[in-house]
Amino acid sequence: xxxxxxxxxxxxxxxxxxxxxxxxxxxxxxxxxxxxxxxxxxxxxxxxxxxxxxxxxxxxxxxxxxxxxxxxxxxxxxxxxxxxxxxxxxxxxxxxxxxxxxxxxxxxxxxxxxxxxxxxxxxxxxxxxxxxxxxxxxxxxxxxxxxxxxxxxxxxxxxxxxxxxxxxxxxxxxxxxxxxxxxxxxxxxxxxxxxxxxxxxxxxxxxxxxxxxxxxxxxxxxxxxxxxxxxxxxxxxxxxxxxxxxxxxxxxxxxxxxxxxxxxxxxxxxxxxxxxxxxxxxxxxxxxxxxxxxxxxxxxxxxxxxxxxxxxxxxxxx
Length: 318
Fold this sequence. Notes:
31% of the residues lie in helices and 6% in strands. The protein is mainly alpha-helical. Among the domains are: 76 residues, Arc Repressor Mutant, subunit A (Orthogonal Bundle); 82 residues, no CATH class; 28 residues, no CATH class. The strands form 2 sheets. Strands 1-2 form a two-stranded antiparallel sheet. Strands 3-4 form a two-stranded antiparallel sheet. Strand 1 and strand 2 form a beta hairpin. Helix 7 runs parallel beside helix 9. The longest helix is centred in the C-terminal third of the chain and has 16 residues. The protein is flat and about 110 Å long. The termini are far apart.
């Protein structure tokens, strides 16, 4: 009667009782987990600056075993989000210290990307694999001094070595001189000075600043826009339209795009259209005076024609 029934089913674990005091809002129904779970900190799940996609992506990465693949293309195949949104979420996690990607070179020469995922914000460098120090060589045993009663073994005679004629030294092979690296081509500049073409420079700045709305992968800083604006003005001066220029800068982008400003600098220099014919270069466009609505020719936009400017200026003779 006192034999334990080993075939009795094991009782299911009781769910952890939730707090029944709140009258509204979320009610937690928790079950005690003994396997297949991941511990997440509130510093991640309740972060006020991270997006929901970044929080969920970090939770998914922390649930994976070590060595799992978490590339952008692999995650885009695993989830319905696009590569651009996943890349933006990874950059958010890197900016707030929950993720760190380091490129390392293996012993066989290959370069791989190692990803470190942190369960709380971390700013220190990732741990490096510690290699075992080479073992010290064994000490050479020192022979004990021979005593009076210790027999000394006879020394064998040295073998006869045939004489070898000396070998003439080999002159070192001179290395061929390597060509110096080619300098970076300068950015194209418009023929007309930019201070006299404020509208052209303004249009170039607006086109560069608005590339992010057409192609989210191209994000430029204010310094990049100021540096590339004269080259865009040179394209406009040669007859290129904003649509043509936008197509030349954003079509067939590499993946991944790591340096957008360097790519735009290369395309603005390498794909520069030829200058207009000489017959059309000296034609001065017609403009209307803002005061008398008179048509006059001027290379740069102006408010008044020559007569209105002379009548308004007190320094010119009547």
